[in-house]
Amino acid sequence: MKISPSVVPSLFTTLNMFCGFISITYSLENKFDYAIYFILFGAIFDSLDGIMARLTKSSSKFGVEFDSLSDLVTFGVAVSVLVYQYEFKNWNGFGQFISSFPMICGGIRLARFNVQLTGFDKEYFIGLPIPSQAAIMCSFLLMILHNNLTQSILSIDTKYILAVLTVSVSLIMVSTIIYEAFPKFTKKDIQKHPLKFFLVLSSLLLIIFSQGNFIFPVFLIYLLFGILKWIFEFVKRMKNVYSDENYDDDFEIEIFKK
Asked: HSE (CB half, 13 Å, CA atoms) of 126?
C-alpha cells in the first residue's frame, strides 16, 4: 500500500494536538511546569509540520485546516485552561471570562487566517500568530514559577499583570497589526531575507543557551516591534493625508485668487 507524502506533516500536526491535550490534563492536575512544557513542545511540532510539508511538497488545504484545529487546541484551549487553573479560577465568573480570551481570540484569528489564505507560504501575518501568543503566556508563567520574576513589578501584583497580558495579547491576535513571518530555512529564503534569518537564528541560539530564560524577552520584542511598526505606519499615513489636504486647500486658494 502506497503511503501519501502528506502523512508525514500530518503526523507532526497530530503530535502538536496531542501535546495540547496532555498539557490540559497536567493543568487540571495543577502540574503547571509540565503543562507549559507540553505547549512549548507543541510549538516545536507545529514548526516541524510546516517544514515537512515543504520538504515533501505535500502542502494542502486539508493540512491547513488540520493545522489550525491543532493550533486551537494547543495554543488556544490549553493556554486558556492553564491560566484559569493557575490563577483565574479563584476569580469566579470574571476569571472564566478572562481565561477564555486566548481560546476565543485564537479561534477567530485562525478562522480569519484560513479565509484570507491565498498561498501556503506567507511573508507576513495580520495579527499576532497564535503560537507566539502561547510562547509569551507560557514563558511569563515560567518566570513566575521559577522565581525569575519578583512577585510585584512597580508595586503591581503579578496576577494583575497576568490578567492584562492575557487579554491584551489575545486581542492583538485579532488586530490588524502586521507581523513578519519567520523565514524558512531554505537557501532561497536566506538569500532573500538575510537580516531576518540572522535575527531569528540569533534568537534561537539565545533561547537555547539561556535554557529557555530568554523566550519571554524574545517574543515580547517581536510583539512590541509589530506594534511600534504599526504606529509608525499609522502616523506616516496621517501625515500624508494632512499634507494632501493642505495641498488641496492651497490649490483652491490660488484658483480663487485668479
From this structure: 13
- All residues at 6 or more sequence positions from 54 whose CB lies less than 8 Å from its CB, including other chains: 184, 186
**At 65, phi and psi to the nearest 5?**
-65, -45
CA distance 243 to 224: 28
As given in the structure block, the three cell numbers for residue 111 are 478562522
For 187, residues 6+ apart whose C-beta sits below 8 A from its C-beta are none
| SS3 category, 211 | coil
- pLDDT tens per residue, range 31-76: 999 999 999 999 999 988 878 877 777 677 888 899 999 999 999 9
Radius of gyration of the chain (CA): 22
Determine phi and psi for 251, rounding to 5 degrees.
-65, -40
Does this model's pTM top 0.70?
A: yes
pLDDT per position as a tens digit, 154-199:
456 788 999 999 999 999 999 999 998 877 666 666 677 677 778 8
Q: Supply φ then ψ for residue 178, to 5 degrees.
A: -85, 130
Q: Is the dihedral of CA 171, 174, 177, 179 positive or negative?
A: positive
Domains (ranges, CATH) in the chain? Answer: 7-181+214-257 (1.20.120)
> How many other CB atoms sit within 10 Å of the CB of residue 28?
13
Name which of 228, 11, 224, 219 is nearest 130 in CA terms: 219
Looking at 174-214, list the stretches that DSSP marks H as alpha helix, in order from N- to C-terminal side: 187-192, 194-209
Rounded CA gap, 171 and 166, in Å? 9
* CA angle in degrees (0–180, nearest 5) for 11-17-22: 120
Contact 53, 16 (CB under 8 A): no
| Residue 180 backbone dihedrals phi, psi, to 5 degrees | -65, 140
